[in-house]
Amino acid sequence: MKEKVVVIGGSAAGMAAAARAKRKKPDLEVVVFERSKYVSYAPCGLPYLYEGLIDSFDRLIYYTADYFRRERGIDVRTRHEVVDIDHSSRQVIAINLNSGKEVIVEYDKLVLATGGISLKPRAEGLDLSGIYTIRTLDDGEKFLKALIKSNTVGIVGVGFGGLEMAEAITKMGKKVVLIGKSDHILPMFDKEFIEVINNVIVNKGISLRLGEKIVSFEGDGHVRKIVTDKGEYKVDSVLISIGIKPNTHFARKLGVKLGVTGAIKTNEYMQTSVKDIYSAGDNTETINLVTGKPAYIPSAPTANKMGRVAGDNIAGGSMKFPGVVGTVILKFFNEHIGKAGLSYNEALREGFNASYVDISHNTRSHYYPGTKKVRIRLVFDLDTHRVLGGQFMGYEGVIERVFALTAVITSKMTVEDLATLDLPYNPPFTPVWDPLIVAASVAMRKLS
Ligand SMILES: Cc1cc2nc3c(=O)[nH]c(=O)nc-3n(C[C@H](O)[C@H](O)[C@H](O)COP(=O)(O)OP(=O)(O)OC[C@H]3O[C@@H](n4cnc5c(N)ncnc54)[C@H](O)[C@@H]3O)c2cc1C
Questions:
Q1: Residue 329 CA to its chain's centroid (Å)
Q2: Residue environment code for 401-436, b if the CB has 16+ CB neighbours within 10 A, otherwise e
Q3: What is the number of the ligand 1 atom nearest to the C-alpha of 138?
Q4: Which of 92, 146, 289, 332 places its Cα 20 to 30 Å from the Cα of 349?
Q5: Helix or strand or coil: residue 172?
């Protein structure tokens, strides 16, 4: 009999695991259960769809369920919700959400790729209609229907997702009230580095309310008002975007160990504590390569890579997922904002004897048309001189330096190593002293 793999969840991690396992070992039987009607989809593209840059939800699908069935030989079952797993008899029990019928499938190996669950504030009135969270394209479709009918939209959360949606919804011609509990936007950045973006937010007509705690949502069955500890805001719909927690429902039921972060603990082969059960994606803990400690830093690239590693090992491979340094890249109107590794405040919290330098430098040679400024905060350790992180902001020149710094941090290079790194030079692309090299040189002066 063919060896059988069941994957729960058909998004980034699940489909990467299924595809890799089947490609590496074509005689494996691979079944994927996915609750929503799409697999291999990109919720990350939703803000751009709302903004009008992308004309249909179908464009946000990498490969359809049909493609996986036909071309890859993977038995993909969309609109199937897994409701129970019995590991002693190795059975997954799912409900076909179209027919209501129960489906039982046996497995030899199981992948938990159930992703994350959107967090919600502790507030009254969460059950009113018109309040949304987004994880899947199905969620995105529902929210778009509400958006079209709304004049004013409340966004709760000033992180990455909240800002992206604030831009998109503003560009739809809607009024946006953006509310955050923290005292600055993008809390993974240092406040004094990032708060210049507040001006961009306000100049775009977005009402920014920082340091406000949601008390309740009020309405007549449908949400009409957001009440915080400092004010009240009339809205026609609400998007809650305050982060996610790992979906560990089945892990807990199966006795799979969770890590200190509350996400599923695996080894670097993505094996959980229970034999033949793997886990990957936004439900799974990883290692922060800067601190060496367990971390929960969910992201799409990490989910894909974890999934691929799980699939490879299920099919007899020995691929490893080492961990992450924590990278962020975001476009907010014309500003590009990026980060690799730790902010200064995160570094202090982690116990490093940290320091930083702030620089602003040309993105191209000073005489080359179109040169702009990129701002960099480089964070380093005063004892070891190791580069711990970098924050970047500018109209251009951000992503390439986030990429370079990610490699620098991963390989545990020092400020001195970075100052002599062989980065390329040509006037249309960089100045002869690249801004990263300038930041490292200024850091060296501080260290001496
Ligand atoms: C609007 C938006 C924008 C984003 N932008 C970015 C970005 O720019 N960059 C970035 O790195 N990340 C971004 N992300 C995050 C990124 O999408 C996730 O990190 C990634 O999708 C995680 O993949 P996953 O497979 O681990 O989990 P998920 O994508 O959460 O998928 C889990 C899947 O499991 C299914 N499932 C769960 N339970 C069951 C069950 N019992 N039975 C059947 N199926 C089940 C769910 O329906 C879901 O499809 C964004 C997310 C959103 C929502």
A1: 10
A2: bbebbbebbbeebbbeebbeeeeeeeeeebbeebbb
A3: 47
A4: 332
A5: coil
Please spell the DSSP secondary structure of 305-320, one letter per residue: HHHHHHHHHHTT----
Instruction: Tell me, using a 6 A CB cutoff, whether residue 138 lines ligand 1.
Output: no
pLDDT at residue 159, rounded to an integer: 97
DSSP states of 292-308 as a string? -SEE----HHHHHHHHH
434 lines ligand 1 (CB under 6 A): no
Q: Is 116 in the pocket of ligand 1 (CB under 6 A)?
A: yes
The verdict on the CB of residue 436 being under 6 Å from ligand 1 is no
Taking the CA of residue 298 as reference, the ligand 1 atom at the shortest distance is 19
Write down the catalytic residue from 26, 44, 213, 262.
44
CB of 11 closer than 6 angstroms to any ligand 1 atom = yes
Ligand 1: atom nearest CA of 134 is 53
How high is the pLDDT of residue 67?
A: 96
The amino acid occupying position 371 is T
pLDDT of 280 reads 98
286 is catalytic: no
According to the model, what pLDDT value does residue 1 have?
A: 78
Q: How many residues does the chain have?
A: 448
Q: Whose CA is nearest to atom 53 of ligand 1?
A: 135
CA atoms of 251 and 82, how far apart (whole Å): 13
Name the DSSP letter for residue 37: S
| 82-104 confidence digits (pLDDT tens) | 999 999 999 999 999 999 999 99
Q: Atom 34, ligand 1: which residue's CA is nearest?
A: 9
Distance CA(62)–CA(85), nearest Å, equals 29
Which one-letter DSSP state was computed for residue 284? B
Tokens representing 280 are: 């990957």
